[in-house]
Every structure is written in structure tokens, then in C-alpha cells.
Design a protein that fits this description.
There is one protein chain. The protein has 311 residues and is α/β, with parallel strands linked by helices. It folds into 2 domains: 40 residues; 253 residues, 2-enoyl-CoA Hydratase, Chain A, domain 1 (Alpha-Beta Complex). The protein has 14 helices and 8 strands. Strands 1, 2, 3, 4, 5, 6, 7 and 8 form an 8-stranded mixed β-sheet that branches. Strand 5, helix 9 and strand 6 form a beta-alpha-beta unit. Helix 1 packs antiparallel against helix 2, helix 4 packs across helix 13 and helix 6 packs parallel to helix 8. It is globular, with a radius of gyration of 20 Å.
């Protein structure tokens, strides 16, 4: 069963009417209802608030990294383990092909259903997950294979075990190593980008966000709890924090916004997957047109550019 947010219920009713009309083989009604659906989608999704965009980024039906991997990759196989402690299922690493390009894809996976969410730790990686991601990235560098990173996490796991195994060091190491990686890299926020847990696979030549994704230093609930001692003020915090793709593009903190289908990736997975694949292959072609020195210099300039100061 599809899940609908409060502001999507008109769409649900129209879609149900379309299904009924198709069962009745009433093509005229289907055509009219499809037009109505398009108008309603445009009306709703072109006027979303920041909080509604946050809800879409967290939507239960929104594709996760593994969904995109299955949709855009072929001849793929998974790489497991960090060769130090264990295999963290919250981080996925796949070698395979996107189009004609051999690619390493690294993604954060939240999981669906209680059993799978527990296996994936709700998409919150442990330090061994980040070390696995770095191992896969270094392997790609060794063989000159480009890297695509799919960011989708509420944040790195803050548990005692993760801290004992040096969570902060693992994230910091990834920031350093990915900044110096010699192979072309593209990172895309596909849902929720939470703090350092997202940054750990977010340092790349090109950093983009899907239309209905968010990126923040802390969750709106955490922000409102700290500032107002009231987690229920998450909507006000969302508006104040400027965490949507449009806000971050305007602030020049990301390179691009990927136009996932207007109705959202949760309603059109194939369209969203095509948007990711097309963006990656397009940007990869641009990166390959540059020399390694030019690409590394451009990456360095991008990483040191954010921020401003006054004397």
C-alpha cells in the first residue's frame, strides 16, 4: 500500500479514480482524470513549504540507495567489510556498470520493515561503515574507476560502541581521503543528509541534491529541542535552518539540484533513477574532459570556498 502525506490526499483520490476508470475501460474518463492529476500535482508540488519538502525527503516510499542501485546498475556485485572489524549494512558498496561506464557506487541504506531497519541500523553507519566506504573508494582509485556516492542518513550512529571504535576519526579520515582521491567523484543527496554522517561520503568533485532532499548540520527536531526546548517546533526550525536543495544552491553550498519528477521520487522511481543516472554520466563526461591537475584544483577551490568574513 502506498503511503500518502496529508497534503497528498487529493492526488490519492484522483489516482484511485483513474484505476477504477481503467477497470471499467472508460478511456474518456481516464484521459480527463489524468489531466486533472497533472494539474493537481503542479498545484501542490510547486507550492511546497520547507517542512513539506522535509516530509518528502523522509517519505516511507522514497527510494533508498539500494533501490537506485538496482535500477541504474547492471553486472553489479557487492563489496563487504572494512577489513578491520565487521561489515556495516548501513553502508552499501557496489561495483558495476551505469550505461557503459564501470562505476563504484557507495550509498547509505535505511532499510524497510522492522527486521531490515534493524539490520541497516536505520541508515546510521558505524565507523566500520565509513571505513568500508573508504576502502571501496580507494579500490576505485587504484583502477581508475569513477565513484558515485548516494547520501541518505539521519546521521552517523551516536552509540557507545561507535564512539569506542572512533566514529569521529573515521568520518574525519573520509573527509581527508575523499578530498585527495585521484579518481572522478560525484555525490548526490537522495533523501536526508544528516550532519557529519552525510559529509563522510559527501566530499566529491560534484555535490548535488535531489529536488526533494535536505541537508543539515542537525535534524530540525534536534535543533528545536536545543533552541526552544520543544521538539514539536520542528517546522519552525526547518524554515529557519535553510536545509532544502533550493536554499543550499542559493547559498552556493552545493553544485546542482537534480530535477527528480515533480510528483516526487516516491511516486516515480524510474523517473528519479533516470535523473540520477543522466546527471552522473553527464558530470562524469565533464570531469573527464579536464586534466587530473585541473580537476583536483577545481575540487580544492570548491572545498575552501564556502563562508565569508568581515574585518
Amino acid at each position: 500500500m502506498a503511503t500518502y502525506l496529508d497534503f497528498e490526499y487529493k492526488i490519492k483520490f484522483i489516482q484511485e479514480d483513474i484505476i477504477s476508470a481503467r477497470v471499467r475501460h472508460d478511456e474518456g474518463a481516464v484521459e480527463e482524470l489524468t489531466k486533472n492529476l497533472g494539474k493537481e500535482v503542479e498545484k501542490i508540488y510547486k507550492n511546497l513549504s520547507d517542512f513539506q519538502k522535509l516530509q518528502l525527503a523522509r517519505h516511507l516510499d522514497r527510494p533508498y540507495a539500494l533501490d537506485y542501485i538496482n535500477l541504474i546498475m547492471r553486472d553489479k556485485y557487492e563489496i563487504h567489510g572494512d577489513r578491520h572489524f565487521r561489515d556495516d549494512a548501513a553502508i552499501l558498496c557496489y561495483m558495476g556498470y551505469i550505461g557503459d561506464e564501470k562505476v563504484m557506487v557507495i550509498g547509505e541504506q535505511k532499510g524497510r520493515g522492522t527486521k531490515n531497519k534493524l539490520k541497516r541500523n536505520f541508515g546510521m553507519p558505524h565507523p566500520e561503515g565509513y571505513r568500508k566506504a573508504l576502502r571501496a573508494a580507494k579500490m576505485a582509485e587504484k583502477f581508475g574507476i569513477p565513484v558515485l556516492m548516494l547520501v541518505d542518513t539521519p546521521g552517523a550512529y551516536p552509540g557507545l560502541g561507535a564512539e569506542e571504535r572512533n566514529q569521529s576519526e573515521a568520518i574525519a579520515r573520509n573527509l581527508l581521503e575523499l578530498a585527495e582521491l585521484k579518481t572522478p567523484t560525484v555525490s548526490i543527496v537522495i533523501g536526508e543528509g544528516g550532519s557529519g554522517g552525510a559529509l563522510a561520503i559527501g566530499v566529491a568533485d560534484k555535490f548535488a541534491m535531489m529536488r526533494y532532499s535536505v541537508f543539515s548540520v542537525i535534524s530540525p527536531e534536534g535543533c528545536s529541542a536545543i533552541l526552544w526546548n520543544d521538539p514539536k517546533k520542528a517546522e519552525a526550525a526547518t524554515n529557519a535552518m535553510k536545509i532544502t536543495s533550493g536554499d543550499l544552491l542559493e547559498l552556493d553550498l552545493i553544485d546542482d539540484v537534480i530535477d527528480e519528477p515533480l510528483i516526487g521520487a516516491h511516486r516515480d522511481r524510474d523517473g528519479a533513477a533516470s535523473a540520477i543516472s543522466d546527471y552522473f554520466l553527464g558530470e562524469l563526461a565533464k570531469l573527464r574532459s579536464m586534466s587530473e591537475d585541473e580537476r583536483m584544483e577545481a575540487r580544492y577551490n570548491k572545498l575552501v570556498k564556502p563562508g565569508a568574513f568581515k574585518e
